[in-house]
Specification:
alpha+beta; 1 helix; flat; single chain; 72 residues; 14% helix
Length: 72
């Protein structure tokens, strides 16, 4: 199954950076948002009927993060 293979590849990565992946399987019509962080931390959120998007911060992976407000 495509989505499971991609999830396993992400989970086995030794990357030390945070990232958000969207995995989409058109055959099963499933979308997963996978958030990763250093030390092999990972969280998976299955996206349903409600639209879902985020950038520049974790939404479901429980890690400490600094929130910086900047005026333009």
């Amino acid at each position: 199954m495509f989505i499971i293979e991609r999830f396993q590849r992400i989970h086995s990565s030794e990357a030390s950076v945070g990232h958000s992946y969207n995995l989409i399987d058109t055959r099963t019509r499933r979308i997963l948002n996978v958030e990763t962080a250093s030390r092999n931390r990972i969280s998976v959120h299955e996206i349903g009927e409600i639209p879902f998007f985020h950038a520049n911060m974790y939404l479901h992976l429980q890690v400490k993060q600094a929130i910086i407000f900047q005026a333009i």
